[in-house]
Each structure stands twice: as C-alpha cells, then as structure tokens.
Amino acid sequence: MSGQNKKVVIVGGGITGLSAAFYMQKEAREKGLPLDVILVEASNRLGGKIQTVRRNGFIIERGPDSFLIRKKSMGVLAQDLGIEGELVKNATGQAYVLVGGELHPIPGGSVMGIPTEIGPFLKTGLFSLSGKLRAAGDFVLPRSNIKGDQSLGGFFRRRFGGEIVENLIEPLLSGVYAGDIDHMSLESTFPQFYAVEKKHRSLILGMKKTTPKQLPQKDGHGAKKEGVFHTFRNGLETIVEAIEQQLEPGSVMKGVRIDAIEAPGMVGEKTILEMNDGRKIEADAVILTTGHEMAGRLFAPHGLLQDLREIPTTSVATVALAFPEEHVVQDKEGTGFLVSRSSDYSITACTWTHRKWPTTTPAGKVLIRAFVGRVGDEAIVDLPDAEIEKIVLADLGRVMNITGKPDFTVITRWKKDRPQYRVGHKQRIAAARAELESKFPQVKLAGASYNGVGLPDCIDQGRAAVKEVLEDLFD
C-alpha cells in the first residue's frame, strides 16, 4: 500500500458495509484512484443479519429470506458479482391473515392492504359489514390537513377506520419493522401513501390508478408461475460469500471493534479510529454502518448523535421447523399467513417455506418458519429454546394438523435489533447528519437505522456513502 493513497475505513460488515466496500474498491480499480479500503467487523463473520443455515438438504434463513425484485440494487449487485444466475423467484400462492382463530385469504386486488377491487373486499370475512361501510368512507373523505409527519396508524384509521387497519393493514405493513403502527412514521416507512392521497384524495381510487395491472402468468395447471421476490438458490448468504471472495486481499479485518473515534484537529487531518486491541487506524474518510446505538456510543465523548440513542429497538426471533411431510396436514393451499394483533397467538407470522421457496426443502419434507416478538410483546424472545418451540408448535397446531416432533428446529434471536422509525424519524436523522458534518465531515452514516431496513435500501445507502466520500476526497 502506498503512503500517498487515501484511506477509507468502513465500520461494520453487514450488507451496507459489504456493498460499500465492494463498490468503493470497484470505483478505485476502474478509475485508477489512489485509494485503500479497509472493512472492520467486530464479529468473526461477515453478513450481519444475513445468515443461512445449510443442513440436511435444507436452506434455512436466520434473518431476511428474500428481497423485492422491483427494488433494483440487490439484483444489480448480484450482476456486478457475476452471481445473477443463482437468483430464484418465490412460488406464488394465496396468503392469509389469522383473525379469530380462522385463516382468511387476503382479498384479491389489495395493495398493501388497500383495496383496488371492490368485489373481493365485499365478500371477505376479514371485516364486519360495519367495518366495510366505514372503509368505504375513503371514497368521500377529504385529504388530510396534517402538516409534516404522522403515524401510519393515524393516517389509515382516518381513511378506513379501525377494523381494516387491525385485521389487514397493520399485519401487512408493520411486520418488517416488528413495530407499532400507531407510532411508525408514515414519511419514513411508506411515504407513497401520503403522495397518493395528496394527488388523488381517495386512497382506493388512487391506488387503483397508480398500481400497474398484473397479467398473471400461468403454468400448465393454471397456477401463477412467478412472484415478486428474489433469493439465491443456496441461500442469501451466497451474496455475502461472493463479496468476501471478491474484496481485495488484506482489506477485511474481523474480530476487532472500533472503540473510539478521535476528531481531526484541523481541516485536512485524518480521523483516528481506536480499536479494542489497542491498534489505531488513521482514516481520510469513514463510513459508519453500525446500528444507531453504537454510533451514539462512539460519539458520546464528543457530545454528538445522542438523540440517535433514543430511537427504540425491538427484539424478535425466528423459529424454523423441519418435518417429514406426513407429519403436517394443511387444508389451506398457499404460502403462509400473518397474524392480527387482536388474535390470541404468540406467533406474529408464518411462512410455509417449502411452498414459497421450493428450492429450500428436500423432497418429502416440510419447512415452516414462524416469527415471534414485536413492540409490547418481546418477553417470549428471552425464553429458552424448548419453551419457544413449545409455544410455536401449540400455536401452529391450532391452524394445521401437526403430528410428531420436528426433525430439528433452528431458533434465532435478534435482540434489540429492529430500529423503530417513529414519527419524526426523517428529521431526526437529518439533524444527526448535520451535527456530524459540523465536527466530523469525514464520517458518513449508513445502514438500517437510518433510511430503510430492507436489503436493497441498505445497499442504496452504502452506494450513496461511497459517492459522497469519493466526491469529498477527489473532486
């Protein structure tokens, strides 16, 4: 490494940090930039929440299991890595909501819970007649006069009433954040709904006009062939492995933690990162992709980013259960179900993984993935594995006929892991970045705590940070 090269340190080896490191090195190679990139990861593995278990022919995800195809950055990254041939789409099928002990099909024509076809909503048993009449109020209600951010729950209750929110919209929209819809920021999670209301007034009419018509693709048996999600044939960790293989030798440091950051004394001086093993790195730029709590701790001695530490987090757990197919009898066709918060169940959702992702499961086997834990209901995550398995099996047994014990179970706890994007989140993050810019302009924040929790959102943030750093260093 030349002493003349600029040094960029990327802190955190999740998908944000990995994509930032990959694209930073790619830019340096292609443009001949005098740049050294170091990725520092506190644990002994890369990938963060992306963790794939490959066992007895099963492909089991401990964290995320897929990503939306319409969000392009993950697919583009796969192409740039040369692994796009490993991508597979989910099998489509009916999804349900569990309400009052019964699985109700999600009505056809619903877009994130908003009806675009009236017939299926009139026929569904998800809502009472009074609930359906209240939801029809969306056709005549005026636009909101609320200025600035507002809660998802407040926004949708005003348009549709409580019943459609509790039984459909809340299970669909709050799941990815494991959050409370009545505190979640509309502006930071689903701003498109506000834009639709502003332009069209009625959400139903607006979504009907703006949602592209889907021409169902059929196989020879009349079933839809393709879905809207991608994963990799051998699990999501495929992309982590591919990035690690293609990063420059010696550019990754695992098992070491950044414990302190020293401010540069004057413009042009380097930022000094102190590691827990006593070593120091002098950096021309830093991309910090850790969670907001770690960012707050690192900058506490400088009196910065302390408002970030107030962003709440939620604990969740995933429970994957493998069975012989003769031990699970389901009378519903489909790929899984969500659970209404008003229902008396501990699980919050369930995927019939062997149906949604056939490549994950050997012939003659069934793979079920259940989720537990959300805001206000996190104690279950701390229970022993045997207790969690018992609770999940009891809940599943009320929905399908399960005989015998699983071949094996994989339980993964994500403690204080899901950042909650509460009302005012966008402004809070903008203020934090402005704070940092005033004293540490060389440090950029990126990751799930800030501008989106999905895998493509994190990749977008990593790439945006790369662009900012390169402009600062070389423009």
From TrEMBL:
SUPFAM superfamilies the UniProt entry points to: FAD-linked reductases, C-terminal domain, FAD/NAD(P)-binding domain
Compartments where located: Cytoplasm
Pathway: Porphyrin-containing compound metabolism; protoheme biosynthesis
Catalyzed reactions per annotation: coproporphyrinogen III + 3 O2 = coproporphyrin III + 3 H2O2
Keyword Cytoplasm (UniProt): yes
Entry EC number(s): 1.3.3.15
UniProt cross-references to InterPro entries, sorted A to Z: Amino_oxidase, FAD/NAD-bd_sf, Protoporphyrinogen_oxidase, Zeta_carotene_desat/Oxidored
Cross-referenced Pfam families: Amino_oxidase (PF01593)
Main location: cytoplasm
Cofactor: FAD
Keyword Mitochondrion in annotation: no
Keywords: Cytoplasm, FAD, Flavoprotein, Heme biosynthesis, Oxidoreductase
Similarity field: Belongs to the protoporphyrinogen/coproporphyrinogen oxidase family. Coproporphyrinogen III oxidase subfamily.
NCBIfam families, A to Z: PRK11883.1-5 (NF008845), proto_IX_ox (TIGR00562)
Name under which the protein is recorded: Coproporphyrinogen III oxidase
Organism for this UniProt entry: Sporosarcina psychrophila (Bacillus psychrophilus)
